[in-house]
Every structure is written in C-alpha cells, then in structure tokens.
Amino acid sequence: DSKGTVYPVSYTMTNLAGGWKVRNVIINGINIGKLFRDQFADTMQKNRNDLEKTIAGWGEVVAKAKETAKAEESGAK
C-alpha cells in the first residue's frame, strides 16, 4: 500500500512437466488456495452441483469478491 506496509507472503510450488507452478499462496495469514476452494465449493452448492453453471458464473463470483475486498480496504483507511 502507499504507507509502505510489509505483508508476509509464503507460497508452495510444484514441478510439473519440467516447469515450476505456484500451488498455493498465503498472504498475511490468508490462505488464497483455501479461500478459492471454499468459494468454489459454496458456489457449487448454490448451483446444486452443476459444474457447468458454476464455471459459467465463476467470473461473477470473483468480481464480487474483488468488490468486497475494495470496500473493506476503503473502510479501513
């Protein structure tokens, strides 16, 4: 952020087919992989386990999460 705040970041990687891929990232104690898994599972449940419907609407879920994060960030300032 503009104040120069330092956030702890840790990550895990895996070597797949000769190339390194990020497997998970934890930022300031927030497990991003778990967050997305939980959001996806919740969306699947709301869509009665309809995978195609869940994937088709996934962009909307991510957009709402971004809006929520921005609103929380603005409120914290």
Automatic annotation (TrEMBL):
Signal peptide: none
Pfam families in the cross-refs: MlaC (PF05494)
InterPro entries for the chain: MlaC/ttg2D (IPR008869), Tgt2/MlaC_sf (IPR042245)
Protein name: Toluene tolerance protein
